[in-house]
Amino acid sequence: VRQASIVSALVPVFGVIFVGWLLRRSSLLPDDSWAPISRLAYLGLSPALLFSSISHADLSNIQLGNFILAAMLGFLGMAAITLALKPFLRIPDPTYTSLFQATCRWNGLLILALGIALFGDDGEILVALVMVVSIPLVNMECVAALSVWGDGAKPKWDSILYRILTNPLILGSAAGGIVNLGNIPLPGMVTDTVDLLGQAALPLILLSVGAGLNFTAMKARPRLLALSVFIKLMIGPLVFYGVGRALGIEGIPLTILLLTGASPGAASAYVLAKQMGGDAPYSAGDITASALFCFVTIPFWLWALG
Fold first, then answer.
1. Residues 66, 247: contact at Cβ < 8 Å?
2. Residue 35: which region, alpha, beta or left (left: phi > 0; alpha: psi -120 to 50)?
3. pTM for the complete prediction?
4. Angle, nearest 10°, between helix axes 280-304 and 268-276?
5. Of 151, 139, 86, 144, which Cα lies nearest the Cα of 266?
6. Buried b (16+ CB within 10 A) or exposed e, 175-198
7. What are the pLDDT digits (tens) for 43-93?
8. Residue 36: is its pLDDT beyond 70?
């Protein structure tokens, strides 16, 4: 990826995030309005975006098996690295679960916006495929860690599995895959409506990311925060890139794997930490810190390896 292309693609994405932060600071909207906006974008509009991208995609030019395998191995590799660190960390077990989430979760919708900005339809479909794979895998990893080391009630795995399978992002992706692979024709009015809904998702998601930046939360466990941000933003890209190269992946798919590893943390880590006895303040700090520093690390990795 050329340096000029990187800048021209990233500035609008990060610019909208900055506008979200300004809007939150300006009090133009009530503080309690941002949670419903984020929920609307994530659960209401993003499934339409994923359905649209997958149902229209030409999958014939993608090494589908190796690409999906590389994505799965990348997430498993990050979990293995974090588990290997546990004996050396003198921190409470609930805090460790939030460190685990910090290094293993990714903000797929932010990377989707970057993938579209950099590579158009090719980036969109590749990130969508990673999301389909990662939603069940990462959620099961994080719930397992919280069930072992968290302070909360132990989860019922049948309930967790049901929630994963009924996740609107999974359902939207699955429906898109069925339409694509089954060559099912849809009326133009239907596809136009779904496409229009999907187009509204990314701006709202990016605004919500900016609105969610909470710099005071970064005061919680600053040394541990530095460790988790370093693992996520500096080790993560090398893990995903290395796995991709080992499996013979090149070009745009390899860069999408790199972006997946370079992604900041996801707001869902904070929600799960509160529900299952993790360290929620630390999770909030990590979400903000990783989002802030990724403005520097993502361009660096794209320039260095992309």
1. yes
2. alpha
3. 0.89
4. 150
5. 139
6. bbbebbeeeeeeeeeebeebbebb
7. 889 999 999 989 988 877 777 889 999 999 999 999 999 999 999 999 999
8. yes
2 or 182, greater pLDDT:
182
Cβ distance 143 to 276 under 8 Å?
yes
Q: What is the 3-state secondary structure (H, E, C) of the chain?
A: CCHHHHHHHHHHHHHHHHHHHHHHHHCCCCHHHHHHHHHHHHHHHHHHHHHHHHHHCCCCCCCHHHHHHHHHHHHHHHHHHHHHHHHHCCCCHHHHHHHHHHHHCCCHHHHHHHHHHHHCHHHHHHHHHHHHHHHHHHHHHHHHHHHHHCCCCCCCHHHHHHHHHCCHHHHHHHHHHHHHHCCCCCCHHHHHHHHHHHHCHHHHHHHHHHHCCCHHHHHCCHHHHHHHHHHHHHHHHHHHHHHHHHCCCCHHHHHHHHHHHHCCCCCHHHHHHHHHCCCHHHHHHHHHHHHHHHHHHHHHHHHHCC
Residues making up the chain, counted from first to last: 306
Of 6-10, 100-104, 170-174, 201-205, give the lowest mean pLDDT range: 6-10
- Segment 269-285, tens digit of pLDDT: 988 898 888 999 999 99
Residue with tokens 């950099």: 118
Alpha carbons 189 and 186: distance in angstroms, whole number? 8
